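Deliverable D2.4 — example input (structure tokens):
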């Protein structure tokens, strides 16, 4: 074990921050660490938008479902899938890249690049004594978010990241056991093993909620996921992504 591994394994989502802004130096360091992440074929198909303006953060909080920590944090980052710069470089080089840039593959590359960069940013922030929480709620209303952030075609805001000085110390939420996530040589398809592992995890999660809520909540992970996934959300996404010049082929 070392400090890097300790930082990663100690991760908790922080949803309450002190009223203290990050310094420009801290922001720069976090972004540089994000940029140090791996990128597919050196494409670097993402951008990060930083938001300091309180009014803009408040509007983003409203669009994300009135999550207070979107407005109240040390700094707010938005990670975007971005092939706009590749459209610009196509003009610079006198080539037509439409077929490539419109492909599902390149949208996946952009989303993966942004996600890798974001996790580097979180690890960097936490190593500095800061806390963070991802904000997927921005995808509730991407038309409004895109208009607010003035993103051009071939740019899709994927998620936000609120970073700041923690004002809470929540318990670490148990993850699915490693043997259920990690498969050796081939995917585990034995149904009895699969179900047994999920049942074991259900007991862990139920005990976690029972202790955390003093018995007011004892639901299992599978029941929680079944309830959530039975209600389709953001079904406009395919149309929106295509409207921004992605995922057409």
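Example output (designed residues):
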């Amino acid at each position: 074990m070392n400090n890097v591994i300790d930082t990663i394994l100690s991760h908790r989502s922080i949803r309450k921050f002190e009223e203290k802004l990050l310094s420009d130096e801290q922001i720069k360091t976090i972004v540089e660490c994000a940029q140090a992440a791996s990128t597919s074929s050196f494409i670097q198909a993402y951008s990060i938008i930083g938001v300091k303006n309180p009014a803009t953060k408040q509007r983003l909080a409203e669009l994300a479902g009135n999550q207070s920590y979107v407005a109240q944090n040390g700094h707010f980052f938005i990670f975007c899938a971005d092939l706009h710069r590749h459209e610009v470089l196509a003009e610079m080089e006198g080539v037509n890249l439409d077929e490539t840039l419109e492909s599902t593959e390149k949208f996946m590359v952009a989303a993966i690049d942004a996600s890798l960069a974001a996790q580097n940013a979180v690890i960097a922030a936490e190593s500095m004594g800061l806390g963070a929480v991802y904000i997927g709620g921005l995808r509730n209303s991407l038309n409004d978010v895109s208009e607010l952030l003035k993103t051009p075609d071939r740019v899709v805001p994927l998620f936000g990241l609120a970073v700041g000085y923690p004002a809470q110390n929540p318990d670490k939420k148990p993850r699915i056991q490693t043997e259920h996530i990690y498969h050796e040589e081939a995917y585990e398809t034995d149904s009895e093993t699969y179900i047994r592992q999920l049942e074991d995890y259900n007991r862990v999660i139920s005990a976690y909620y029972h202790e955390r809520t003093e018995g007011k909540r004892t639901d299992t992970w599978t029941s929680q996921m079944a309830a959530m996934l039975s209600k389709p959300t953001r079904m406009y996404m395919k149309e929106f992504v295509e409207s921004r010049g992605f995922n057409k082929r």
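The chain is about 50% helix and 10% strand.
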